[in-house]
Amino acid sequence: TENGCAEGNKFVLGYGLKTNLKVDNVVATLDLSTWHMGEGLDEDTEIPNLGYNASGTVGYKINISDTVSITPLAGAGWQHWARAEKGTESWKDRQFIYGIAGAQVDYKSVYARAVAIASDKIGGEGEVGFTINKWNLAGFYRNTAYHNARSALTGVRLGYIFDIL
Fold it and tell me: How far, CA to CA in Å, does 97 sit from each of 36, 78, 100, 120, 157?
């Protein structure tokens, strides 16, 4: 610990809404989410403790076989990061727009997705998951940076797929 606060890995709780729209082979995704740190801040002044994200991608699904497909994708997003006041802060609030480029590979009910995220610095995101009976379970890693702030999130996402149309 440093100054009575845990350093290193932090517990983060997040929630959001991710929607997918598929028309023939065109796939569009809208992702709205928020997260907050579940413990106190330490002296690492570049780490935010609250964040909001709105992003969207468009891709074209290419069927390699009956069970394998690859979807190149591109998009854009907006993030807002904040930190609680702490006296030694070099910043308290960051908002930025970023670009997304990457691909998703699907094999039956399993998928892997990797994208580059570019604001004024280059980051990335990876996700591996599977879907069974409308339930989706995925592990992810997201590394993003903007000016003197950074966020590296690793976690598990549980979701449910609703049929709208």
Answer: 20, 4, 10, 9, 24
